[in-house]
Design a protein that fits this description.
Number of helices: 12
Transmembrane segments: 17-37, 49-71, 171-189, 209-231
Family: Belongs to the DHHC palmitoyltransferase family.
Strand content: 5-15%
Helix content: 40-55%
Strand order of the largest sheet: 1-8-9
Biased composition (Polar residues): 299-321, 333-349
Structural class: mainly alpha
Domain Palmitoyltransferase DHHC: 126-247
Distance between the termini: 42 Å
EC number: 2.3.1.225
């Protein structure tokens, strides 16, 4: 790690300030939109009292949910790997003495033998972070901006000045959903007054300029937000992160782009939780602790054929620590034992059924 001096400390502080510029921009834009819609459009321009009341009530509901989810996305701290994934002092000393290669990997294999990890590097090695000096849990990645390993990292978002990962991914999805509804609602209710602006049907006041720019801003943001929200809905349905969509996770048997997918229903529950009453609220309800995830895989040993007969080698694989003895967390493992939606887990039901049996044997 590079030594830090007064100069580098000042640069870090400057970067921290600059990182907040996109958040300040969104906040100012949101404040202006409130003034333009609630004051200039609803109170000044609308003449029908009933229309005013309905629009203001619906607007404030969407505005409140938008601000709430945006706040939670920004200020929810990303979760980092627990202490069990950090190397002990003796293991760090041993790792520093060993050269890069098989001996280095052997130290990491011994340290990881009881950890619930299944993913590997492209070369098949244990995923280790030199910066944080820990064994990376599945779906965990190091963020160069935060300079930390983030559990189930999706991406670092400049618009929230935070890493989007396991702890706030649900909040980020709700932020996209409510911001899209917010923009669509404004565009829909502002449209008739926008038309009046071009037909000279509005009085010549400053309100008409707010109405015009409000419609343009809402319409443009609606287009960009709809594509982004649709993309993340697809990611949730496939149980992928943005990073995994660009580079598929690597397991012991090789790359598998659908290795974490359990079917649409279970994929949704993994992000939003089991209690549907919390799905639309920016309250944390995701399953698990971000360190272990169920998978739908068979034939973890790459030397075994991709046939049901290959499952007979499961006992040998567990002896070689291909599957850790440590079970999944309870809130995640019940996704594997619940048989209700295994039929929808994949286009190849036999694969998921075999994967379920394979995990049951290794976690017994």
């Amino acid at each position: 790690m590079a030594p830090s001096g007064p100069g580098s400390s000042a640069r870090r502080r400057c970067r921290r300030v600059l990182y907040w510029i996109p958040v300040v921009f969104i906040t100012l834009l949101l404040g202006w939109s409130y003034y333009a819609y609630a004051i200039q459009l609803c109170i000044v321009s609308m003449e029908n009292t009933g229309e005013q009341v309905v629009c203001l009530m619906a607007y404030h509901l969407l505005f409140g949910m938008f601000v709430w989810s945006y706040w939670k996305t920004i200020f929810t701290l990303p979760m980092n790997p627990s202490k069990e994934f950090h190397l002990s002092y003796a293991e760090k000393e041993l790792l520093e003495r060993e050269p890069r290669g098989e001996a280095h990997q052997e130290v990491l294999r011994r340290a990881a033998k009881d950890l619930p990890i299944y993913t590997r590097t492209m070369s098949g090695a244990i995923r280790y972070c030199d910066r944080c000096q820990l064994i990376k849990p599945d779906r965990c990645h190091h963020c160069s901006v935060c300079d930390k390993c983030i559990l189930k990292m999706d991406h670092h978002c400049p618009w929230v000045n935070n890493c989007v990962g396991f702890s706030n991914y649900k909040f980020f999805l709700l932020f996209l959903a409510y911001s899209l509804l917010y923009c669509l609602f404004i565009a829909a209710t502002d449209l008739q007054y926008f038309i009046k602006f071009w037909t000279n049907g509005l009085p010549d006041t400053q309100a008409k300029f707010h109405i015009m720019f409000l419609f343009f801003a809402a319409a443009m943001f609606s287009v960009s937000l709809s594509s982004l929200f649709g993309y993340h809905c697809w990611l949730v349905s496939k149980n992928k992160s943005t990073l995994e969509a660009f580079r598929s996770p690597v397991f012991r048997h090789g790359t598998d782009k659908n290795g974490f997918s359990l079917g649409f229903s279970k994929n949704m529950r993994q992000v939003f939780g089991d209690e549907k009453k919390y799905w639309l609220l920016p309250i944390f309800s995701s399953l698990g602790d971000g360190c272990s995830f169920p998978t739908c895989l068979v034939n973890q040993d790459p030397e075994q054929p991709s046939t049901p007969a290959g499952l007979s080698s499961t006992a040998k694989n567990s002896e070689n620590h291909q599957f850790p003895a440590k079970p999944l967390r309870e809130s995640q493992s019940h996704l594997l034992t619940d048989s209700q939606s295994w039929t929808e887990s994949s286009t190849n039901p036999g694969k998921c059924k075999a994967g379920k049996e394979l995990f049951s044997e290794n976690y017994s």
